[in-house]
Design goal:
The structure is a single chain. The chain has a domain of 92 residues: RNA polymerase sigma factor, region 2, helix turn helix motif (Rna Polymerase Sigma Factor, Chain: A, Orthogonal Bundle). 77% of the residues lie in helices and 0% in strands. It has 11 helices and no strands. Helix 7 crosses helix 10 and helix 9 crosses helix 10. The protein is elongated.
Length: 196
């Protein structure tokens, strides 16, 4: 598959065309920031990671060949930066601000009870995600939180699409199991009974 429009845009940006670079930042900025936030875990760290990703992207645009989506290529280029931040995020204790920042992305009503419930859900998902093996958690983050396509995830992870789908399925199952177990414990149930 050819991504001629992406290749043209990358070539223009690499040749110091400010309008082309602005278009890349506008098209991919939110995706890269959101992904950086998921990997870094905090807004300030995500901003730094996003800046690092764009600096690396700009420096390497001349190497883009147009054989994969530009956003996937950009994310693959930043893979090590993201994974390093993710590893740091996994070992950092959950900050009280993390669910608050994640909640800002979720539409909520005026009901304080509903907001508190959503806050608990977001915190539980973030905590459960940290317990998954890195390859599974990454697949879930990229697909379910950032809504990247299977092609884009495959490029980012440098694996075949079948592997992406397999990791995603296993990651989702593992995430559900962790959440069910935690819910059962909080309600004083046997985790086996809670999964029925």
């Amino acid at each position: 598959m050819s991504y001629a429009a992406d290749l043209e845009l990358a070539r223009r940006a690499a040749a110091a065309d400010a309008a082309a670079w602005d278009e890349i930042v506008c098209r991919f900025g939110k995706t890269i920031y959101n992904l950086a936030y998921r990997f870094a875990g905090r807004a300030s760290d995500a901003e730094d990671l996003t800046q690092d990703v764009f600096l690396k992207l700009y420096a390497n645009l001349g190497r883009y060949r147009g054989d994969v989506p530009l956003v996937g290529w950009a994310l693959r280029l930043s893979r090590n930066l993201c994974i390093d931040r993710y590893r740091a995020w996994r070992v950092r204790p959950l900050s009280i601000t993390e669910p608050e920042e994640a909640l800002a992305e979720v539409a909520s009503g005026d009901d304080p009870g509903e907001q508190a419930h959503r806050r608990e859900q977001v915190a539980m998902v973030h905590e459960a995600l940290r317990t998954l093996p890195e390859v599974l958690a990454t697949a879930v983050l990229l697909r379910d939180f950032e809504e990247l396509s299977y092609d884009e995830i495959a490029v980012f992870l440098e694996v075949p699409i079948g592997t992406v789908k397999s990791r995603l399925a296993r990651g989702r199952r593992a995430l559900v199991a962790v959440i069910q177990e935690r819910l059962a414990k909080s309600e004083g149930l046997d985790p086996q009974e809670a999964s029925c």
